[in-house]
Amino acid sequence: MADPVTFSSDKGAYVRTNAWLAAFAMAVAMVVLWLIGNPYVWTGAPAGLAAIGIRAWYLASEELVATWEMTDATLTGPGSRKVALNQIQAVNTIGSFVQIVTKGGDKHLIKYQADPAATKAAIERAMA
């Protein structure tokens, strides 16, 4: 049996993902304020930034320690997440996330990967 492969969260990917999310939240907040006729549309930008910044700070201690481990037969994640490799139907990348879709329809995210394409390739190699 080969040594387990681990997929850990990357701090740089976490920061980049939340920066993009903050930019999106800022734009949406400004558009909403503009649509409702608020004369202070610019206040949407700091509101969106603050909302995502606080969320990112609050979740960092949990998200940055999340690790998935892959053996010859299973992919085990945080909590009670466990997927048999022969039950994986699809492996997708979504930004810095890798989505695992099982044959039963369950979906799992391996979040904040520095190189999601490499993570996907490693899982697909193990499945073959």
TrEMBL record:
The chain crosses the membrane at residues 19-36. Keywords: Membrane, Transmembrane, Transmembrane helix. It comes from the Bacteria. This is PH (Pleckstrin Homology) domain-containing protein. The lineage of its organism: Bacteria, Pseudomonadati, Pseudomonadota, Alphaproteobacteria, Rhodobacterales.
